[in-house]
Amino acid sequence: MLLQRTDKARRELSPGVRTLSLRERSLLLLADGKPLADLQTMYNGVGAQMVDRLLRDGYLAAQAADPAPEASTASLETPPEPTAALRSLAGTRMYLFDLCERLFARRDPALARSFHAALRAARDRQSMLEVGEALLAEVTQRAGPERAQGIRERLEQLQPPEHALSSAWGN
């Protein structure tokens, strides 16, 4: 059985909305199209309770699935590529907002507010890239270059196909 996010979950994941715990929000981010069993094993077994609650409260919906054997094996080896809907500048912007929220909101609220304001003011691709680079520089300083590189790679994956090869986030 596969899980899908509902409209209620998408609203919860939008910037400025935070009614669920950080773990529940992260589970929602991972849930779309994932098998129920995979999510239930997360967080040392607490994932099962969280998934049950998210299903009961209408954040997730279950759908039967008949995945092809080769598709299920491939999903275990590498993380899935973002769908076409996620590969957009808007999706990249939302990812940056979410990063800002997860990484800085509690530890450094003033920095989080400044990144939020800069992202809201970024009206084009170039200005958004500049804010992203500043955010990555802060991550490098606080969490190290490996963490920043992982985020950089994810940002590259989120770029629309026409921008992905020429992205400033490329290696």
DSSP helical segment count: 10
Beta-strand fraction estimate: 5-15%
Give the count of structural domains.
Answer: 2
Shape: globular
Identify the strand order in the major beta sheet.
2-1-3
Q: Low-confidence stretches at least 5 residues in length (pLDDT < 50)?
A: 67-80
Classify the secondary structure makeup into a structural class.
Answer: mainly alpha
Mean pLDDT: 77
Order of SSEs, N→C? EHHEHHEHHHHHH
Percentage of helical residues? 55-70%
Instruction: Please tell me how large the radius of gyration is.
Output: 17 Å
**Span of the ends, CA to CA:** 37 Å
Q: What can be said about the biggest beta sheet?
A: 3 strands, antiparallel
Summarize the SSE layout with pairings.
Layout: E1 2-5, H1 7-12, H2 22-31, E2 34-35, H3 36-40, H4 47-56, E3 60-63, H5 69-77, H6 89-104, H7 109-121, H8 125-143, H9 145-158, H10 161-164
Antiparallel strand pairs: 1-2, 1-3
Tags for this entry?
171 residues, mainly alpha, 3-stranded antiparallel sheet, 10 helices
Account of the 3D structure:
The protein folds into 2 domains: 2-77, no CATH class; 89-164, no CATH class. It has 10 helices and 3 strands. The chain has helices at 7-12, 22-31, 36-40, 47-56, 69-77, 89-104, 109-121, 125-143, 145-158, 161-164, and strands spanning 2-5, 34-35, 60-63. The chain has a 3-stranded antiparallel beta sheet with strand order 2-1-3. Helix 6 (89-104) runs antiparallel to helix 7 (109-121), helix 6 (89-104) packs parallel to helix 8 (125-143) and helix 8 packs antiparallel against helix 9 (145-158).
